[in-house]
TrEMBL record:
Pathway: Glycan metabolism; pectin degradation; 2-dehydro-3-deoxy-D-gluconate from pectin: step 1/5. Acts in the modification of cell walls via demethylesterification of cell wall pectin. One of its GO terms (biological process) is pectin catabolic process. The keyword Coiled coil does not apply. PROSITE patterns: PECTINESTERASE_1. This is Pectinesterase. InterPro entries: Pectin_lyas_fold, Pectin_lyase_fold/virulence, Pectinesterase_cat, Pectinesterase_Tyr_AS. Its main location: secreted. The keyword Hydrolase applies. Residues 1-23 form the signal peptide. It catalyses: [(1->4)-alpha-D-galacturonosyl methyl ester](n) + n H2O = [(1->4)-alpha-D-galacturonosyl](n) + n methanol + n H(+). The gene is LOC123424970. Residues 31-332 form the Pectinesterase catalytic domain.
Amino acid sequence: MRPFCLLVVGAFLLLRWPPLSLGWAQVARTITVDQNGGGDYRTVQSAVNAVPDGNRQWVRIYVKQGSYREKVTIPSQKGFILLQGDGSFKTDINLDGHGDGTDAPGMAPITGRHDRNLTNISPTYTSATFTVHADNFVARNIAFKNTFNGGYPAVAMLVDGDKSAFYDCAFHGFQDTLCDLIGRHYFHHCLVVGGVDFIFGYGQSIYEGCTLVSNMPASSQQPGWVTAHGGAGGGRNAALVFKGGMITGSGRQYLGRAWNEHATVVFYQVNMAGIVVPQGWDKWTSGQDVSQVTFAEVGCSGPGSGTAGRVTWEKHMSYAEVQRFVDIRFIDDGWLSNQP
């Protein structure tokens, strides 16, 4: 290749983010899961158990095409796992766990990253089909589902480890589908399906090019909520940031409701279907103090993006102000490029 061509290709790669085809970290070992017996293990949890505690080398758990009905937990001591399927329409992990309805997300605060005993905090958290407590986790081309079809919280994915990334994954549920609990997380071209608080937590996360699909019944008089975020307070960064992508589906939806007084959610250049209610945002309780809540929309499009009817306490950011949130450095200090 001529030097000029090398310069052009190099410039193109620098403009690409993230480097989807040029994994910078090497995978030391691959474990294959096949429920039909054609791999090392038949279940995903068995493969996770085979990763040694204190692991520091990337291990790929390749899950062959199929629907795996099981509850999976990656404990905090089993980091550096890459979970890879054959596509989110071909490989899924599913279960129908659910909370008992005695709690609501806002009644179960998490005080820190090491508050791991979720059983004692809320049955919502322990309803998750797939739970990631470990730092340094990557998932690609796989779906996580909670198939419970009732009126209780039913989590498909809970992640409270730091430095987790999801590429071309899908998350299916209805109430509390994706628990983005604590830590820095990156979601790229993912699908999230739900009706009530279907992305919730205290996370510091960027959702880039993701599709958020409401499955709220069209006949429902009560709109759902796409997000329920609780900010950390004390000056620490915590926010759910949606960059590009779209909101679509059925029923009506608020963009989010404030889990606590520091809730922060930003929608940037997101295409919004007409299912978004004119008010846009909601309080958790009618008397809630929202003076420190940061709910914002910048550069959005579509029939649901009109801001004329929005709540008066929505924050109005300029493009310059929103850059702090949408810049990848909001979550990344180099860890994304050190993943496979």
